Structures are given as C-alpha cells and as structure tokens.
Amino acid sequence: MCFNNQNILKLCKNKKVVLAPMAGITDGKFCKNYKDLFAIVTIGAYDLDNITQLASEKIVKRGRKEFLYNLNKFDELIKKEINDARKSNALVSVNVRFKDIDKALNNIKSIGKYADILELNCHCRQPEITQLSIGQELLKKENNIILKKFLEKIKLNINIPVFLKVRANFVPVNELINNLNNVRPYFNGLHIDCFNPGKNYPDLDYLKEIRYNFKDKIIIGNNSINSIEDAEKMLKYCDFVSVARCVLKGNIDWIYKLNIGAQNIGRIY
Ligand SMILES: Cc1cc2nc3c(=O)[nH]c(=O)nc-3n(C[C@H](O)[C@H](O)[C@H](O)COP(=O)(O)O)c2cc1C
C-alpha cells in the first residue's frame, strides 16, 4: 500500500493522536491492544544493521528495554509485527536506526513492502547510539551530509512516505530548519518531540517555527500530551499529536473523547 500526504490526512481525518515509538515496548502485540484509537501506530525502534543491534544489546545490559532479534530473519519479523499492529486499525509506521545504509538496505526494503510509513530515528540520545553519529546526532550540521545520503537511498528504494523523528532544542530551531531544507525532497513528514530542556511542558514556539517553514509536510507534535486540552493546544501547529508515556500510564480515555470531535480541530498555520 502507498499513501501520499493528502491520503494520510484523509484516512486519519477523525483521529488526531499517534502512538509514539518506545523501544522494547511498542511492537505489533502492544499496538493491537488499542483498536480504533490511534491514527498511526509507530512500532520500534528497530535496528537495521548489526552495529546498531550491538549497541542495543549494550543498552539492554544496563537495564533499558530494546528490541533484540535475529537480523537475518528481519523480513519475517517485521512482516508479523506490522500485521499485528494493523489489528489496531491504524496506519503503521516503523521507527528505525542504522549506521550503514548499505547493510540496512534489504531491511529497509522489507519495511517498504509491508508498512505505511518509514520513520527514520533522528531522536535517540542513548550514548551507545549517539557514539555511532546517528540518532539525534543526525540533526547536527556536520552530519547533514550523512542524513542526506541515508534519505536519498531510502527514497530510491522504497515507495512509502518517509518521516523523520526529531528532537527539538538539540540544535537551535534555525539550524534545524536549514538542515531539513537541505533534505527537503526526501521526506514527507516530521515527528517532532518538542523537548523543552528543564521544563515539563512542550516547546510550542519551536514547533510553531517548524510548522511555519514546513507547511507542505505532515507534522506530528509530541511531548507531554496527557489530555484533550494539551492536545488541542499543540494541534494549532501540527496535524497530529503523539503520545508515549501517557499510554504506559493507561491514561487513554481522553483520546477516545478527542476522536469524537476531532474533525473540528485544525491547525492555524
Ligand atoms: C521507554 C521509552 C522508549 C522510547 N523509545 C523511543 C524509540 O525507540 N524511538 C523514538 O524515536 N523515540 C522513543 N521514545 C521517545 C517517545 O517516542 C517520545 O518522543 C517521548 O517519550 C516524549 O513523548 P511523551 O511525553 O508522550 O512520553 C521513547 C520514550 C520512552 C518513554
């Protein structure tokens, strides 16, 4: 199946909330517990090459959850995960990490065969991943050439929309806008964690700048959304909001309520 941006918006029109990825947690089995709740479910992060799987093994050893699996059987694995995730009746996005695009390419093609969206992780801040100059490191100016190489190859090899999961305030907003402008033809959407250092609420000013500069892209806003009020504030500057920790807390009733009136909520930019 292949969707363009207008199709994605149309298909999700009465659902405004996306399930954000949580490594070691959000797999197909997790998603199928949430029927008719989310517009998009994001599974992963999945590692697509050996070096990132090794990094994940190290992360697990120090007590954090990650998905660990046999990379030689990735096609089989991801097909099953996506099929399970589809039981949520949401579009399925797959959040991925890799260091070497050539080694990851077959696995990228598998995702292209089965998923609705591929989401490149430019967000992870686990040291085992950032030491590889990937995750949030891909947002830096000096790594923009690597990001471009990744995205060019992905676009050449798959036919589904490509989103970037990014973190606000890792680089200043103008730097992020410049860097994203350099790769503009190669992505369809931005999933932005509006991380606000030292604060427990999202940086909506950063999001506003991103919305203003990328009006043609689908934007999923994220960070500390726990209620209809939080979601409505953020939805002024994005097409969807996403949630992670609030789902773990079981705080989801408000999402059903939001979906009922969702057609009346819209972005102002
Ligand atoms: C346990 C956990 C694991 C996460 N793993 C990932 C991941 O694999 N990939 C990713 O892009 N973001 C990951 N995130 C970040 C979330 O997708 C989200 O951006 C962040 O939690 C802020 O949203 P929230 O306030 O709704 O929790 C993770 C978050 C948590 C809590």
TrEMBL record:
<feature type="domain" description="DUS-like FMN-binding">
    <location>
        <begin position="19"/>
        <end position="248"/>
    </location>
</feature>
<dbReference type="Pfam" id="PF01207">
    <property type="entry name" value="Dus"/>
</dbReference>
<dbReference type="InterPro" id="IPR035587">
    <property type="entry name" value="DUS-like_FMN-bd"/>
</dbReference>
<protein>
    <submittedName>
        <fullName>TIM-barrel protein</fullName>
    </submittedName>
</protein>
<dbReference type="InterPro" id="IPR005270">
    <property type="entry name" value="tRNA_dU_NifR3-rel"/>
</dbReference>
<dbReference type="InterPro" id="IPR013785">
    <property type="entry name" value="Aldolase_TIM"/>
</dbReference>
